[in-house]
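Quick illustration for those who missed Monday's session on complexes.
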Amino acid sequence: MRLQNKVALITGSARGMGRAAAELFAREGASIILTDIAEQEGIEAAQSIQAAGGKAIFVPANVAAAKDVQHLVETGISTFGAIDILYNNAGIMPAADTSVIDTSEETWDHIMAVNLKSTFLCCKYTLPYMVKQQHGSIINISSMVVFLGSTVPQEAYGVSKGGLLALTKSLAVQYGPAGIRCNAICPGPINTGLLDHLWTSEEERNRRLTRIPLGRFGLINDIIYFALYLASDESSWTTGTWMTIDGGISSNYF
Ligand SMILES: NC(=O)c1ccc[n+]([C@@H]2O[C@H](COP(=O)([O-])OP(=O)(O)OC[C@H]3O[C@@H](n4cnc5c(N)ncnc54)[C@H](O)[C@@H]3O)[C@@H](O)[C@H]2O)c1
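Prediction with nicotinamide-adenine-dinucleotide bound:
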């Protein structure tokens, strides 16, 4: 098993890619600290890992709130004794996020809090434990939108995800000497609930599909198996970098 004896904290793990990653990492031998604002689904996700023979706890938390994150990390440490992998996955993409002219200040602040400040907070409270144990792998979920402009703007989302890349580089440099790695993944459109509001019609789907050289939208497994590599010791000389996994969209001029 690729994550034997490791402990992984995965944010936003009640649904979508976070939940699938929690299940995959548990199958690979890791003990999982799941967290989400969706309490019922989070509890069910932890129970289903336990039912399959894995180790998991669910700790409800709003990852944009310092008190919640502090409690989350302390609960994880007191339950499993360490956090070897911090997977900053929780994120939102509200329909109200459009151009700078039309996006409200509240929407901007909310997206920055959930997508960017959350990772600052999770790192802030987890890193002291990682420094003490002299190892750790931090995985930040960014997006391929940071590399491209779009005629359908989502300004706050793109900026929040760009900030994650800057943080990834800085943490890799600061904490590399302590044996801590920090990398990011930049997915293209993956079939999860996050994008439901974008798929309003067949025309909207096809507008995006025609941009993808590999001819399909992404699957959850396209992302989480790369996260598994970053979480494992197989990537022990990989830090301060990111992988774009988007079916080729960001290479496509015409
Ligand atoms: N789906 C895509 O196409 C896509 C593409 C690029 C990047 N991403 C990123 O991947 C990550 C996972 O997205 P997904 O597609 O699985 O979406 P999802 O909506 O299925 O899952 C996101 C999870 O985060 C949780 N969450 C939201 N706000 C939270 C908060 N304040 N505190 C704790 N948990 C919170 C949600 O309840 C949900 O369970 C996100 O960061 C997203 O921005 C997704």
